[in-house]
């Protein structure tokens, strides 16, 4: 290997480490996962946590970020040892963090890395996180409000819309109770469940075996395992696998009819308001007819972070929070951006017993 190649490799690996910190700070978990080889590993014995493969790294990161009030990471360059198409190295980390349940602190850590040259450039084959110093004393500072950081008079903060980062914070038990009451008043059935595991079990009660079921393109369903249970478990007449098997050029009408009127649609939403409305967003709009009324029954699984006060805030959540996350996912998976081309707002359910909302006490999905 010539000197120029070695220099180029070192620059690219250093850029890779910087990209990792930027993706973590921007809460861009699909991008962070893409920095690893397909079988790459992120190991954090001090937490403890271990994720192997891009999907596990992405899902684990989403669970972790849903707990943050704020998080700041700084990476300092360390050693890089090149060995052909592989390399090893260390990066030095300083972090400040506070979680929504009040845990907080300052730490200094080391990432022990293995790198692999791929057709897409250098990737992490493994990152092992080792904490060298931890101080859990209460932090004197706080994450500034968006209004303050933009120069707005602090006296006007209460009149300023909530920053986008607040859209990732789980609602309290009291807020969930208010939402459930409002949904019931609007004709929806509403239940509050502990977590996604409880929702998986409840789906089996609500959807009879053998029913035709359409699942929405939802990160909540994917991360909870509900999508796999329905579409690959053999318990139901799953619509999505049938659709995927049809040639889109010749079977467009058949696809349209299948997705428009299943017995059940199981999906999530982009936001639920404290006034009892559901907001769904879509790029193609193909899944919206079943949610709007085409399906005989609907079940929506909703993470606690999707609760907002009203419809105007719900639309802000779609544009400022859900769309950037979905756009990053679409770029990573499909190589193309997402868009909010269709919006569906369900203010009430006129057919008693048709729609059930499962409100989770955990944050999950976009």
- Arithmetic mean of pLDDT: 87
Profile the largest sheet. Answer: 7 strands, mixed
User: Helical proportion?
Assistant: 25-40%
Order of helices and strands: HHEEHEEEEEHHEHEHHEHHEEEHEEHEE
Radius of gyration of CA atoms, rounded to a whole number:
23 Å
Helical run tally: 12
Form type: globular
Distance between the termini: 45 Å
Oligomer: single chain
What is the SS-derived class? alpha/beta
Low-pLDDT residue spans? 145-165
Number of strand elements: 17
As a percent range, the share of strand residues is: 25-35%
Task: Outline the structure in words.
- The two termini are 45 Å apart.
- Strands 1, 2, 3, 4, 5, 6 and 7 form a 7-stranded mixed beta sheet that branches.
- It is globular, with a radius of gyration of 23 Å.
- With 366 residues, it is an alpha/beta fold.
- It has 12 helices and 17 strands.
């Amino acid at each position: 290997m010539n000197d120029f190649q070695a220099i180029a490799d070192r620059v690219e690996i250093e850029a890779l480490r910087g990209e990792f910190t930027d993706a973590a700070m921007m809460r861009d978990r699909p991008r962070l996962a893409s920095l690893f080889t397909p079988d790459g590993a992120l190991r954090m014995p001090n937490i403890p946590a271990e994720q192997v493969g891009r999907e596990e790294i992405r899902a684990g990161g989403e669970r972790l970020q849903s707990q943050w009030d704020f998080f700041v990471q700084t990476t300092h360059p360390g050693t890089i040892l090149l060995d052909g198409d592989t390399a090893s190295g260390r990066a030095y980390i300083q972090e400040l963090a506070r979680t929504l349940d009040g845990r907080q602190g300052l730490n200094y850590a080391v990432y022990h890395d293995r790198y692999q040259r791929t057709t897409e450039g250098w990737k992490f084959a493994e990152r092992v996180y080792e904490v060298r110093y931890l101080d859990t004393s209460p932090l004197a500072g706080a994450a500034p409000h968006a209004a303050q950081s933009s120069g707005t008079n602090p006296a006007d903060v209460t009149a300023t819309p909530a920053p986008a980062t607040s859209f990732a914070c789980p609602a309290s038990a009291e807020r969930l109770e208010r939402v459930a009451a409002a949904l019931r008043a609007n004709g929806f059935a509403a239940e509050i469940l502990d977590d996604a595991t409880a929702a998986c079990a409840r789906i089996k009660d609500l959807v009879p075996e053998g029913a035709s079921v359409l699942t929405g393109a939802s990160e909540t369903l994917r991360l909870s395992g509900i999508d796999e249970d329905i579409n690959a478990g053999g318990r139901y007449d799953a619509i999505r696998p049938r659709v995927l098997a049809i040639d889109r050029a010749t079977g467009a009408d058949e696809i349209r009819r299948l997705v428009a009127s299943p017995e059940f649609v199981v999906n999530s939403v982009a936001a639920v308001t404290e006034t009892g409305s559901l907001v769904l967003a879509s790029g193609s709009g193909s899944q919206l007819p079943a949610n709007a009324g085409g399906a005989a029954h609907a079940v929506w699984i909703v993470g606690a972070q999707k609760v907002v006060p009203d419809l105007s805030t719900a639309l802000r959540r779609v544009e400022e929070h859900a769309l950037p996350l979905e756009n990053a996912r679409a770029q990573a998976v499909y190589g193309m951006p997402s868009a909010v081309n269709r919006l569906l707002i369900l203010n009430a359910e006129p057919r008693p017993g048709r729609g059930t909302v499962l409100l989770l006490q955990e944050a999950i999905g976009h």
